Amino acid sequence: MTTFTTEDRMKAYDIEDREDRERMLRDQNRILAEEIQVLKTRLAQANKRAGSWEEAYHNAMDTMSKMSRARP
Fold first, then answer.
1. What pTM was estimated for this model as a whole?
2. From CA 12, how far away is CA 56, in angstroms rounded?
3. pLDDT score recorded for residue 71
4. Three-state DSSP class for 72?
5. For each of the chain's 72 residues, which pLDDT tens digit applies?
6. How far apart are the C-alpha atoms of 52 and 47, rounded to whole Å?
7. Per-residue confidence (pLDDT) for residue 17, from 0 to 100
8. Which of 26, 46, 22, 45 has its CA nearest to residue 34?
9. 23: Cα within 13 Å, side-chain hemisphere
10. 52: helix, strand or coil
């Protein structure tokens, strides 16, 4: 029969704790990477919408300018 000392048990707990922490950190990193990808996609979409709004604004201003020049 093998007898484990307190020191042996503490080493085993430390190894388990370290493995649990590493697993938890890997999971957190995976989740954060997914969230970053979602945010990058949303940012790209927002930039695209902002560009189209800017273009629409400039087109509207050009039209207003042409209309004001066309009035007698």
1. 0.56
2. 66
3. 63
4. coil
5. 567 677 777 777 787 888 888 999 999 999 999 999 999 999 999 988 888 888 888 889 988 888 888 765
6. 9
7. 86
8. 26
9. 6
10. helix
What is the rounded (10 degree) CA torsion for 26, 30, 32, 34? 180
Question: SS3 sequence, 24-45?
Answer: HHHHHHHHHHHHHHHHHHHHHH
Cα-Cα-Cα-Cα dihedral sign, residues 26, 31, 35, 37:
positive
Total residues found in the chain within this entry: 72
What contacts 4, CB < 8 A, 6 or more positions away? 12
Q: Is 17 exposed, middle or buried (0-12, 13-18, 19+ CB in 10 A)?
A: exposed
DSSP, collapsed to helix, strand or coil, labels residue 2 as: coil
Can you tell me the distance from the alpha carbon of 63 to that of 55, in angstroms, rounded to the nearest whole number? 12
